[in-house]
Amino acid sequence: MTAASHLAASAAAPPAGTSAAAAPAGTSAAAAPPAGPSAAPAPPAGAAAGTPPAETLAADTPPLAAPARPPVPDRARRLGAGRRLPLARLAGQVAVVAAVLGTVQWLVDSGTVPRIYLASPTQVIAQFPVLFTEQDLLGHTGLTLFAGVIGTALGVTVGVALGVWFGLSRRSERFFSPFVSAVYAIPKVTIIPLLTLYLGIGLGHKIAVVFLFSLFVPLFNTMAGIKNVDEKHLKVARAAGASRAQIIRKVILPSAAAPIVTAIRIEAAGILVITIFAEMVASKGGLGYLVQRAVALYDTPSLFALIIYVTVIAVAVIGLVNLLERKVLLRWKHL
Description:
Blueprint: H1 3-12, H2 54-60, H3 72-109, H4 121-134, H5 137-168, H6 170-185, H7 188-199, H8 203-213, H9 216-227, H10 231-239, H11 244-255, H12 257-281, H13 287-296, H14 300-329
Helix pairs in contact: 4-14, 5-6, 5-8, 5-9, 5-12, 5-13, 7-8, 8-12, 9-12, 12-13, 12-14, 13-14
């Protein structure tokens, strides 16, 4: 054998220390993976066959996307616009009021409208100290509010009581319904002279007039609220062994509370109007007496000052009723 043949045979033979069984039959030497540092590492002990390594899973799993948030500058811009909107609306309202008052002031000062028909804002403002000091405005306000509150309280109490009675007793409702409708249809203005004849000019006359005007709205609202009580609530109360008084107090009246409170709000809005109307017809004191006096004397600045004063008191009374509704009457609804 020549030297070249010997070298070729040595290159084709497997290296020393390698068993022949390690290479499968029919596999050429060129197909075997080279031994050395470039070979893939063996899977860890205990790993299931065919399970990819943890590094591969971590590399293939996409990261969780964070929830999208609006850019901070845009949100701050929206909040700033929301704060500026009420200010802009308020500024526009003030500008409208100022324009109206300025126009009235110019019409009166220029003589375009005679002072007997219209009072300028400066005249109305100057008349308030006169009303408080010379005409006892606070004392007359107390008389009006006292008569209005007493008459309205009596009217609402009697109206709610009759509404509960008629709402619970269908026989009573059918029997008294024609009489209630007839009394409600009578124009109250025609009764006021009779009340003046019977009760005279005084506190009783005003309370009676306010009572008649404030009786029917609570009556009808209470009846409607009781008729609209959910029948399921009544069945549950009866199944629980509640007595008739407990059902009325704990089921029927709370269910009808919203219409009753609505009636109270309506009466509170008109309490001053009705009382002043009764005082203008026949009275020796009160805000209506002052209004009638200003009309008789053609005191236009006092008349406009009294109108503004009554409006402010009416708004305050309505706000007080709304507060009473949120804190006491329908507190459960605003929790």
